[in-house]
Amino acid sequence: MPMLYPPSVRNKAFINGTLLKASKSKKILACPADPASPDSSDLVKIYFYPGLAPLKHIFRQSKASREYQVAKEIHKRGVPTILPERVQDIKKWGLLYHQSIVIAKLLPDCMNLEEFFSRQEAQDLHVRRAVIQQYAGLARTIHNQWIYQEDFSPYNILYQKKPGGFFQLYFLDFEKIRIDRELSRQERVRNLAKLNRSARVFKKTGDLNSSDQMRFLKAYLGPQAKKDELREWIRQIRAEEEKIFARDRERTRKKSTSASSRIGVLKYNGYRGYYRKRHLKEKCYNRSDIIQILQSIEKTDITGKAGQPPSEGFQTLTVPLNGSEETFAVRFFRYNGLKYRLKKLTKQTPVLSAWKTEDLALRNRTADFLPVAAVEKRTGRNQYHGFLILKTL
Fold first, then answer.
1. What is the domain-level CATH number for residue 34?
2. pTM of the predicted model as reported, rounded to 2 decimal places
3. CB within 10 Å: which end of the chain, N or C, has fewer?
């Protein structure tokens, strides 16, 4: 298996690299292929092994080695992809994985398909149809070659623009892939439902339409597909999509009210609630920011909006944060009675339900607002009020 350049050279290259994505278990950088020559770049993916992960991998391949082997197998099956060029495993005491690194060539003029469809270039009807046609053919080839990817989405397809108006699509992301048996119809439907869910985002922004979705499905099934067959596929895809939304809704509702790297728990001056620490790879707000926003809310007469409908129950608030002013939309809630206590135990109070709904929309990338915080406070005997704090995206 090809290995990396020496550690001293490798560390220098990584330090000079540009961070593209980071999490607890993975970091992706664009680094100079040769530290002495910045003209060409590599895509460097560094896997970490936090907690008990090193013990789990004692008798397994490293994450980088598995990615290398999967990429080779996919390429052998005729699916266009980018083969890693170098791989290295770094161990503690020669036994436990500490890091594993995989490096591939960073191709010029590239972007993932999600980014492409939001670009002006994709609004050219001829270009968009050509990309959809090739994307459907690539999806069919992937499935016909027994390749099942759990996270099947346009984000994992790379678009490369080439001279003369040509382009090439590449299949990426080998972490959640299975290549061991022929795909069932239900597995194909599930993958296509995930694509359909992504298409909803583009339809909302006007980047794609229903005709584009139908064109993709016809190209995926091939010219032999009859109208009745098309209708049956559409019915099954929509049914599966609803199941995916239901699973996402339940999963997101639990995560929205649990402490994590993305969500923080706030307790301040009688207030209890949650706030957003991070969205995607961007830091959002810390505890001090939320306290400052709450102090600004308490100085206003926003509570006078309580009796109005939700659509009219927002008040704009400008707060100085970190040397600049930020504008928020604040929705006020007021409720009383013993029923509230039961709802509080199950985290189903009106303000928390609204927080979960906004967080689900954010996860599905259909949100108009970034949910910043949801807090509640007891103001009297069986009397409570709360605030849902939002920021326009």
1. 3.30.200.20
2. 0.76
3. C
